């Protein structure tokens, strides 16, 4: 007698790409990754780094939507990096496999160690990230793989944005999704590395508090910060996604900077 499979193959962007993920444990990709991918609006032949990529949902979503994008998935966990590699090799992803690769590396490394790990200085046009978001005081999960993906540490945004700034070309774009309570730490970590910061609050429904923020910034820019009009995910009294958010979720549109 065999048990249920320990992993699943899940379709995203209405079948435009597929993802191999652990079942019943670890972090399973969803809407956050798709919204993050929607922040990359660039039809040029660009190089995109997905930091803390997990199984590769956000990076592969970018590759699926942008036919000229080369995507590198950086992941510290050996197990999740293996899921990302096997996801790329799925037959359903043959059309993008040549433009996606995986590097097993800790994105908090610095200087020579960072470069030696494959996080090469000034080599990417876009850096995207969905960093761990659980505070130390949050209830800890017994799932070790999920805990590693979700546990926020002190100085996390400083270390991740330091790496993003280092590996990005001048004028390159940072994109991230986070919880609203991280906004001050994100702005501080951007410092003089990134300017022209645009922040969009994501609300479940009209009148409900924001549950996520989308943040973009440009390396070396001195432009002022902008608070954009909020995104509302669902129509009032409904679980149906708004047309615009549904387009982001399914790779039909990008969320273009102002």
TrEMBL record:
Record GO biological process: methylation
Residues annotated as domain Methyltransferase small: 34-139
Pfam families per UniProt: MTS
Tagged with keyword Methyltransferase: yes
Keyword field: Methyltransferase, S-adenosyl-L-methionine, Transferase
Source species: Rhizobium hidalgonense
Keyword Methyltransferase in record: yes
An annotated Gene Ontology molecular function: methyltransferase activity
Top-rank lineage group of the source organism: Bacteria
InterPro entries: DNA_methylase_N6_adenine_CS, SAM-dependent_MTases_sf, Small_mtfrase_dom, tRNA_Adenine-N(6)_MTase
Name of this chain's protein: Methyltransferase
């Amino acid at each position: 007698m065999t048990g249920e499979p320990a992993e699943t193959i899940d379709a995203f962007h209405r079948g435009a790409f597929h993802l191999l993920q652990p079942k019943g444990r670890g972090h399973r990709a969803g809407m956050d990754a798709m919204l993050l991918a929607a922040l990359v609006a660039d039809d040029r032949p660009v190089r995109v780094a997905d930091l803390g990529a997990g199984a590769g949902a956000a990076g592969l979503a970018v590759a699926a939507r942008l036919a000229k994008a080369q995507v590198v998935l950086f992941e510290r966990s050996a197990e999740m990096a293996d899921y990302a590699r096997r996801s790329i090799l799925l037959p359903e992803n043959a059309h993008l496999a040549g433009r996606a690769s995986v590097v097993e590396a800790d994105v908090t490394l610095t200087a020579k160690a960072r470069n030696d790990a494959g996080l090469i200085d000034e080599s990417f046009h876009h850096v995207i990230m969905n960093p761990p978001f659980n505070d130390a005081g949050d209830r800890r999960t017994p799932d070790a793989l999920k805990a590693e993906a979700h546990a926020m540490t002190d100085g996390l945004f400083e270390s991740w944005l330091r790496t993003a700034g280092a590996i990005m070309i001048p004028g390159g774009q940072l994109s991230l999704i986070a919880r609203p309570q991280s906004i001050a730490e994100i702005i501080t970590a951007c410092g003089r590395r990134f300017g022209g910061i645009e922040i969009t609050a994501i609300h479940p429904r009209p009148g409900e508090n924001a549950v996520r923020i989308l943040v973009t910034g440009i390396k070396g820019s001195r432009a002022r910060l902008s608070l954009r009009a909020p995104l509302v995910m669902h129509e009032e009294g409904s679980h149906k996604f708004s047309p615009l958010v549904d387009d982001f979720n399914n790779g039909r549109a990008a969320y273009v900077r102002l």
